[in-house]
Design goal:
Elements (H helix, E strand, L loop, with lengths): L1 E5 L8 H11 L3 E5 H4 L6 H14 L2 E6 L13 H20 L4 E4 L14 H21 L3 E5 L12 H11 L4 E6 H7 L3 H8 L3 E6 L14 H11 L4 E4 L14 H28 L15
Length: 299
């Protein structure tokens, strides 16, 4: 499995140092927090500089997340806004292409992805699908994929579950428009998290890893062994990205870069161990010891 780290984990810490730390921790890639670290207004020179940092660190850019800057609204049937959203997405795709990133995550729990209370949901969904279909055409020319994220009901009222996101993407019906899920949101919305991944994992372009408390895997109560096994069974072979925050009403980022790094070391160790166990079990089956636990020592 390939692991990536969202630069948002380090908040607005120096991006160059964040990339360096991600490589030292052991990540294969970073997922750039676009609106904060590399917005659509960024110059070609700035993008080339960031690409140079990635090459220097020996890691890739797996994708872009946090792409919206609040200037457009995606979840609407307003034709003018639809046009603006499509143009904006194409600019984000250009940023991704300049970094050799393959994925643009269409997420956001803010107003951008939220349907207004008076909105005709069916008509608005069709309009959003058309925006993504057109943007998907452009993404295909750049070898980039749009990944529509399922986000929990407390952050948006549009596409909350993996089923809803998958059915929506099937309505879009474009080879470069896929789905995206996040274990934090899955833990809230899915009655059977592993079962949902097995059922809808075929459509996933990316998966965010975070525990039930929005911090690193291994610090909450999510069963990452079950998640890892379900991903392997579904044939998922893309990036698992760590989107982890010190999430409280009064702050979004961790108190320091060192605390963010500590969280990432815990999370990466937890995830790698979960996938190692899942791969072992898939090949050999679990081995029960005399205490009724699974043991891998000496195998």
């Amino acid at each position: 499995m390939k692991f990536s780290m969202c630069t948002a984990v380090f908040g607005m810490h120096d991006l160059h140092d964040t990339i360096r730390r991600a490589a030292e921790i052991g990540f294969d890639a970073v997922e750039i927090t676009a609106a904060k670290h590399l917005p659509v207004e960024s110059t070609k020179e700035r993008r080339a500089e960031v690409k140079g940092w990635l090459d220097e660190a020996g890691i890739a850019c797996s994708g872009l997340h946090y792409i919206w800057d609040g200037s457009v609204k995606l979840a609407t049937k307003d034709k003018e806004q639809n046009e603006k959203a499509c143009e904006y997405l194409c600019k984000v795709i250009d940023v991704a292409a300049d970094l050799d990133a393959k994925t643009v995550i269409v997420g956001s729990g803010g107003a951008t992805r939220h349907l207004d209370d008076e909105a005709d949901r069916e008509e608005a969904a069709k309009c959003v699908a058309e925006v993504l279909r057109r943007a998907g055409d452009y993404a295909q020319t750049k070898d980039v994929y749009l990944a529509v994220e399922a986000i929990n009901r407390y952050e948006t009222n549009f596409l909350n579950t993996m089923q809803e996101a998958t059915e929506f993407v099937e309505m879009v019906n474009h080879p470069h428009v896929c789905t995206m899920a996040d274990t934090y949101h899955i833990n809230i919305e899915e009655t059977d998290p592993a079962g949902s991944i097995r059922k809808y994992g075929y459509a996933l372009q990316n998966l965010h890893l975070a525990d039930s408390n929005r911090c690193a895997p291994g610090t909450g109560h999510i069963d990452f062994d079950a998640i890892a096994a379900a991903l392997l069974e579904s044939g998922f072979d893309k990036y698992c990205s760590f989107e982890v925050f010190g999430l409280y009403p009064w702050k979004l980022w961790f108190d320091s870069a060192d605390e963010a790094e500590r969280q990432m070391r815990i999370g990466l160790q937890t995830a790698k161990a979960a996938f190692a166990r899942a791969e072992y079990n898939a090949q050999y089956g679990p081995i029960d010891n005399k205490f009724g636990e699974t043991s891998y020592e000496g195998r």
